[in-house]
Specification:
The chain contains three helices and no strands. By secondary structure, it is mostly helical. Keywords: Membrane, Transmembrane, Transmembrane helix.
Length: 84
């Protein structure tokens, strides 16, 4: 059961990121739209990570801040690439 949960959860993450990448490619001439897609992917990744680790009962402050740090770095990169 654990392996099935992990498989489904990771397939969901991969599918969401793939859809996000396609949305970025589709809006390749609109930097603002691409930035909004990046932010949506970041929020999904953050929510996915927190829910996934909460469900596995191994969510710690360290993991929480790690996900926040990755989300912040990605958001800053999105700002630098698409908004400046």
């Amino acid at each position: 059961m654990k392996r099935q949960f992990d498989l489904v959860a990771h397939l969901l993450l991969i599918a969401a990121v793939a859809v996000g990448m396609l949305a970025i490619l589709r809006g390749r001439f609109a930097g603002g739209d691409q930035f909004l897609v990046i932010i949506a992917i970041v929020f999904f990744y953050l929510a996915w990570g927190l829910v996934y680790h909460y469900a596995k009962r191994d969510l710690t402050k360290k993991l929480y801040f790690e996900y926040l740090l990755i989300a912040a770095i990605t958001s800053v990169a999105g700002i630098l690439v698409f908004m400046l």
